[in-house]
Amino acid sequence: MYLLNQVGMPKRPEVKTAEFAKALGAEPVASIPFDPQLFGTASNNGQMIAEVSAKHKTADTFLQIAKSITGRAELKKQKNDLLSPLLSKIRGLRK
Asked: 64: domain range?
């Protein structure tokens, strides 16, 4: 597994992602774009990317990387509807 970091840095020669993947014979786990403001702010404040901007695409990318490495996935939360409290009480009475 590998990932590409600082993709799209201006004024720097860069091998295209598709060419890089073809040379290695595998697709990258993730591709992290060059974003000096986000990473600079996080570094200067001693924070994680998700703490600086939780809704940023890069924060989600780091989450996906962690999931793929650990093999874990988030548990889906059950949606509560209007009848769920009533149904849970009925189920409790049957036991």
From this structure: 3-94
